[in-house]
């Protein structure tokens, strides 16, 4: 009957596929056991760091413990980044990590930036996001899109004393980022920028802004253009710092542009390509957010486990109770899994591979893990965890931003699902749906 013929056809296709796959595996077995690089070395594990990377991480760790840690409580209470912290991240080369030496930068790697962001977040996520925005949003755009004149002006200062802010979000354009209302009206060789930006990280400390404005609203998002605007330009004003739940020392402010006149030379990249640049930049930025979250989760975990090792109940350490031990194991495992997603996405970006799905997965999963880890740490510490004297409460507050900025969790899920859908559509060996449906009907 028709069903039998369909199943036979499907079976033949599957058999042919299996034969083909076996042939490929046999033919490539010598090369695939194991994979080696050009010098005959097997690729290292994702979490294996080079000597340079280990040295960098240790440098960040020392700075975090010596300079940042004593100030965390006061910075959180006052919602202010201490001057010694700002000076320190510049002096240690943590800002503008990928900037080339000819522009007075360390000319390091994106993965190095991820390590710095992660390590800082173990002590204070506010400092981590401060450094993150400079390295994953601001500097890369100028590095890749800037004219030589723009690079000469901004890149050396980015590495030494200037902070940049990425101005995309508005009151009516959050997840729908390109519904922005800020306009840039052409006037001769100038553009006049008018509009307001909201939730701008580092705005209070910024020396300049990367402003996304629509130069031709009638073209929709295709009119969006990126402009470099100095803070001292006439018409620029930074509003009151938001009184936030978490990452309180990180400056988050509205920025207003009231008829700000800039020359056409202030355009960053191509006219009308701002939407494209923002999307590409945010994809990389999500890896940075993932690094923040795994650092935050690890930092919270690291201050909690010693308490569980020392605290005794009924004559035994808390960590010796099976129920507690299993929970600790689970959280530790999930932090490590999230780290692998973040590191993998970062390595893929460095290798020039497509990393959009991996970045979304890293950002999404690390935020889930950080939320769970901090919540569990507060729970495990009981009353101690509920006080400000112990840092887990701050970590718990800080992690609440993870599902919001640089793309909500639902935006990440949407991105991942679309890419999985596209990948599955590209597969030519999937049995036709009609065969599967017919098989189900006959099983019934």
UniProtKB/TrEMBL annotation:
<dbReference type="InterPro" id="IPR036250">
    <property type="entry name" value="AcylCo_DH-like_C"/>
</dbReference>
<keyword id="KW-0560">Oxidoreductase</keyword>
<feature type="domain" description="Acyl-CoA dehydrogenase/oxidase C-terminal">
    <location>
        <begin position="272"/>
        <end position="418"/>
    </location>
</feature>
<dbReference type="GO" id="GO:0050660">
    <property type="term" value="F:flavin adenine dinucleotide binding"/>
</dbReference>
<dbReference type="InterPro" id="IPR006091">
    <property type="entry name" value="Acyl-CoA_Oxase/DH_mid-dom"/>
</dbReference>
<keyword id="KW-0809">Transit peptide</keyword>
<dbReference type="InterPro" id="IPR037069">
    <property type="entry name" value="AcylCoA_DH/ox_N_sf"/>
</dbReference>
<dbReference type="GO" id="GO:0046395">
    <property type="term" value="P:carboxylic acid catabolic process"/>
</dbReference>
<dbReference type="GO" id="GO:0003853">
    <property type="term" value="F:short-chain 2-methyl fatty acyl-CoA dehydrogenase activity"/>
</dbReference>
<dbReference type="Pfam" id="PF00441">
    <property type="entry name" value="Acyl-CoA_dh_1"/>
</dbReference>
<protein>
    <recommendedName>
        <fullName>Short/branched chain specific acyl-CoA dehydrogenase, mitochondrial</fullName>
        <ecNumber>1.3.8.5</ecNumber>
    </recommendedName>
</protein>
<dbReference type="InterPro" id="IPR013786">
    <property type="entry name" value="AcylCoA_DH/ox_N"/>
</dbReference>
<keyword id="KW-0274">FAD</keyword>
<keyword id="KW-0496">Mitochondrion</keyword>
<dbReference type="GO" id="GO:0005759">
    <property type="term" value="C:mitochondrial matrix"/>
</dbReference>
<dbReference type="InterPro" id="IPR009100">
    <property type="entry name" value="AcylCoA_DH/oxidase_NM_dom_sf"/>
</dbReference>
<dbReference type="GO" id="GO:0006631">
    <property type="term" value="P:fatty acid metabolic process"/>
</dbReference>
<feature type="domain" description="Acyl-CoA oxidase/dehydrogenase middle">
    <location>
        <begin position="165"/>
        <end position="260"/>
    </location>
</feature>
<dbReference type="Pfam" id="PF02770">
    <property type="entry name" value="Acyl-CoA_dh_M"/>
</dbReference>
<comment type="pathway">
    <text>Amino-acid degradation; L-isoleucine degradation.</text>
</comment>
<keyword id="KW-0443">Lipid metabolism</keyword>
<comment type="similarity">
    <text>Belongs to the acyl-CoA dehydrogenase family.</text>
</comment>
<comment type="pathway">
    <text>Lipid metabolism; mitochondrial fatty acid beta-oxidation.</text>
</comment>
<dbReference type="InterPro" id="IPR046373">
    <property type="entry name" value="Acyl-CoA_Oxase/DH_mid-dom_sf"/>
</dbReference>
<dbReference type="InterPro" id="IPR009075">
    <property type="entry name" value="AcylCo_DH/oxidase_C"/>
</dbReference>
<keyword id="KW-0276">Fatty acid metabolism</keyword>
<dbReference type="Pfam" id="PF02771">
    <property type="entry name" value="Acyl-CoA_dh_N"/>
</dbReference>
<keyword id="KW-0007">Acetylation</keyword>
<dbReference type="InterPro" id="IPR006089">
    <property type="entry name" value="Acyl-CoA_DH_CS"/>
</dbReference>
<keyword id="KW-0597">Phosphoprotein</keyword>
<keyword id="KW-0285">Flavoprotein</keyword>
<feature type="domain" description="Acyl-CoA dehydrogenase/oxidase N-terminal">
    <location>
        <begin position="50"/>
        <end position="159"/>
    </location>
</feature>
<comment type="subunit">
    <text>Homotetramer.</text>
</comment>
